[in-house]
Amino acid sequence: AQSLSEKPFSFSKKIIYIGMTNAVAGLKGRLLQFDNTIAMKHCQHGGADRVLYKHQDYAKLTKNLYVSMRHWKCNPQDPTPKDLRTMGKIAAAEYELFALCIERLGDLPEFNRKKESKKYSLTYGRG
Fold first, then answer.
1. Are residues 55 and 38 in contact, defined by beta-carbon separation less than 8 angstroms?
2. Does the pLDDT of residue 2 top 90, yes or no?
3. Residue 32 and residue 12: Cα distance in Å, rounded?
4. Neighbours of 71 (CB within 10 A)
5. Were 41 and a residue from 36, 48, 104, 105 both cysteine, which residue would form a disulfide, CB within 3.0 to 4.6 Å?
6. 112: Cα within 13 Å, side-chain hemisphere
7. Is the pLDDT score of 125 beyond 90?
8. How far apart are CA 20 and CA 55, in angstroms?
9. d(Cα 70, Cα 64) in Å, to the nearest integer?
10. How far apart are CA 20 and CA 95, in angstroms?
11. What whole-number distance in Å separates Cα of residue 113 and Cα of residue 117?
12. Whole-angstrom Cα distance, residue 20 to residue 68?
């Protein structure tokens, strides 16, 4: 697979999901929850649960799955006013990306469309 490291982000219909986290476990923890869900270890991530409904072959999916991220440092466990403002920027960035997807691509990414994307755990009773 071709490395996309350090390449600039661009909008594409190939984007399947946009997410963010302000969790204490941070980005690493949220990505682990996503991976645990698509690997059918534990259902810990709603977006990943929708991805899993359509893509149940973990090996095949992960060979073609790329993550683009922007990282801000903050402390959600004991936040200062600066941390709270940063957490607000993180949430705002997610909504800005949603708006840009609709403007540039005509819709949200497939697995952000909660009304039409089914969850694996709700369909097959696992989780």
1. yes
2. no
3. 24
4. 7
5. 36
6. 17
7. no
8. 21
9. 20
10. 10
11. 6
12. 11
